[in-house]
Design brief:
Number of strands: 6
Structural class: alpha+beta
Strand content: 15-25%
Number of domains: 1
Order of helices and strands: EHEEEEE
Mean pLDDT: 83
Largest sheet: 3 strands, antiparallel
Radius of gyration: 17 Å
Distance between the termini: 59 Å
Helix content: 10-25%
Strand order of the largest sheet: 1-4-5
Length: 97
């Protein structure tokens, strides 16, 4: 059975589930590029499916946006992406021929 996430759980879920941007508080704001609305963490529709997966959706009726469609409104930090040079190499090194 699906369940909506309570407000007191929401920040932790946003911090864990939004792989695009960091959440410092439920008052952090984003702009949804699909519906052009400014939303806060408090407004985001968050629910957990029966497998334990969290789903985050824009609160605007009819808008299908997810975190990839939300951009910072004001100060905000993007999550760093790992470049190939930063990825672990497992100790293997190329040997010249």
């Amino acid at each position: 059975m699906n369940r909506h996430i309570r407000l007191d759980e929401k920040l932790a879920v946003l911090q864990e589930s939004d792989t695009f941007r960091k959440w410092r508080s439920l008052d952090d704001r984003r702009v949804c590029v699909l519906c052009d609305r400014v939303i806060s963490g408090r407004m985001i529709d968050v629910w957990e499916d029966k497998r334990g997966t969290f789903h985050l959706h824009c609160p605007t009726a009819g808008c299908s946006a997810t975190p990839r469609d939300w951009f910072c409104h004001g100060p905000c930090s993007a999550r760093p992406k790992t470049s190939k040079s930063e990825r672990p190499t497992l100790g293997f090194r190329a040997v010249p021929a």
